[in-house]
Structure prediction request, 396 residues.
Amino acid sequence: MNFFQLGVFWVHLFSEMGFNVLISPETNTSIVDQGIEVMTCESCFPVKISHGHVRYLKNKTDYLFLPLMIEMEAKPDMKGYYCPYLEANTYMLQAALDLDQRKIIMPALYLNKGKEAVKSSIQGEFQRLGLPFDSFLFEKAHFKARQAMSKFDAEIKRIGAVTLAGLKDSRAIVVVGRPYNAYDSRTNLNLFAAFSRLGVIAIPQDFLDIEKEEINEEYPNMFWGFGNKILKAAKFINNDPRLFGLYLTSFACGPDSFILHFFNHEMCRTNRPYLELELDEHSAGAGVETRLLAFLDAIKNQKKVRTLNKDVHFISRKSSASLSGRTLYIPKMAAISPCLAAAFEGVGRKAKVMPTYTKTGLEFGKSATSGKECFPCIVTTGDMVDLINNLRKQGE
Prediction:
């Protein structure tokens, strides 16, 4: 699933290390069907597709490279975690396809920790599999792979800059989303071809220099790596009156169900219309094109477009207060909640497990969420608000 983000790097790394690298073909109907056929649990569409790609490669290679992607590269003051599916998909694939662990290179990768951490993890896998590992060769291969990745990234940024310069006073759509949603021709239903037919310029977020945008002050706890990129893209859009956003996501994407709220907040700040496309294996191109046409009409009707006020100052959401004399309420999200409360009590702090599944709490939780979030989010949101309201009534 990380191919559209890091494929250039991995292909060059293993090629330089002496491997013949085989890449599965572009996603097609057969790969989709093969993936869905072997799924052992419900998931988003990209995970299902990944099962089809690995199934295609299973008997065609000596080894499968299926890393556990934990954390991507990020600025020192930011987090960059991948979603739980990307972290655990290797194990899901093993169970669904009955893969032999002796034929899988499956390092746990924390890219944010740098080259040495990547090297150590891959070396550990080579040792587990009984493969020779040449440290000098890896260093050389890693350097060349980084060069190739940097060259690729610089080229797409150049294309993006040229495209923006060529817009003049015209308008364009920025396609925002995770690489495996935005760039796979099946998950995006040939979205860019549709824009081309409609005579509209569409720019992928990775073609834009979004890294200069600062979001950490407003969103200090955005620990999803792609969430950081999506919100930076939103800031970039808001600073250019010619740009409008299209958020491409998959049905049942947990992180996006939360990130969408923040993206909507950013677009509302400049009163800018945007389109959210939530697609899966049942989506059809005709329906997408109909929505694109409606979106384009909304953009045409937007005569004046605001940009963000550069002088806006944000109040930090970070705060601290003493627990002395206070009661800490813990959401009842699992059997461990009473244990946590007991642990706090053990160190002299009052703690209680908050009541859950109350009627008023559930009603509020459903009204305060979009319906796309997981059910525990709805329950916990309602529990917290219901508790606060009850404490206020009691004068606490």
About this structure: The chain has a mean pLDDT of 93.
